[in-house]
Amino acid sequence: MKNTLLILLLLIIATTSCERDDICIDEITPKFIVRFYDFDNSELTKSVENIAVRIIGVGIDSLYTDNSTTILTLTDSIAIPLIVTDSETKFIITSNSTDEALISIDTLTLNYTAEEVFIGRSCGFKSVFNDVDYDNTNNWIKNIEVVSDTITNETSAHVKIFH
Amino acid sequence: MLKYFISISLILYSLNFFSQEKDSIIYKDSYGLRVGIDLYNPISSFIDDSRKGLELVGDYRISKKFYIATELGYTEKTTDLDFLNFTAKGQYIKAGIDYNTYENWLNMENIIYFGFRYGFSTFNQTLNSGIINSDPFLPEQEITAPREFNSLNGHWAELIIGIKAEILNNVYLGFSFSGKKMITTKEPEGFKNLFVPGFNRVFLNDSGFGFNYTISYLIPIYKKNK
Hints:
Chain A is mainly beta. Chain A has one helix spanning 2-15, and strands at 32-37, 48-55, 72-75, 77-80, 88-95, 104-120, 124-136, 143-146, 159-162. In chain A, β5 (88-95) and β6 form a beta hairpin. Chain A is elongated and about 75 Å long. Chain B is mainly beta and 226 residues long. Chain B contains two helices and eleven strands. In chain B, β3 and β4 form a beta hairpin. Helix content of chain B is 12%, strand content 62%. The longest helix of chain B has 19 residues, at 5-23.
């Protein structure tokens, strides 16, 4: 009978063993991902030099910092957050932001419907974005191609920008 | 005559053996209804005011080793997490059997048991506040208006291991540990049953556990030979 008790105790421990579900490790609200391509050869990615991104209305139109890198010296893609409480986020994307001679500024506006989704105990809620519309100015950006009109994950680019 | 000697002495010996058996005291087991109250809820509400509750426990002995057992209770619990704050409140009932594995000496009536329960709870959940978790660059986006999720329920199974010791005549102090597994729940829309009264915290794999400290009184109904 002692063995039965021991087995039962082990069974209880096995089925109720503690999980690390108090630390948020699930996907939270996806960021908007842009990939930069060469306007002359649309198959090739083309990096933007010294790109700087501002989100209008957040902070005092503060420069978006991702992993404490304010200005990305040479990058072919950026991931930027969208405002979940509004249906519009406006970005000011500057290329060659450190070079007075080459600096060029464009505005990219996204309109969407934010949908709230419950993730779980450790992460709370997130938003996904449906019916996304894009609008942009054309200074250094020559063309944009919408890959997806929903933003639900961060696995691939949502928009291609040709420059 | 001598050849019957061994047989006669064996007969005498066995008669002697039987008479000794008649002299011995016969201890009897009490059978009856044991009712009690859970002490874990009042103790925990003393330590942490986010939990309030009451649980009544009862068991009835049906044979030498088996008891029919039940628990009924009410729990109100507020859970505060990094990105959520919610309150679950409701009532529950558990019913099942306990199996005593302990051989008592003489007239002792302690039990070390394992048990099985089927549990059912009806409850409400209120999401007091929540955070829409997004990039920390953005200002924190909070859900501040409380949301009510009513008429939820849960069905689960429990395995229990416990002990009940007679500390005074017919008064028992008990302790038990239970492992639980949720079978089905009626989930709220846009939220989840993260805490179920009687089940406690629902872990990711639908399991849970609980502790019970009880004090109970045995109302003896009849006695039976061991």
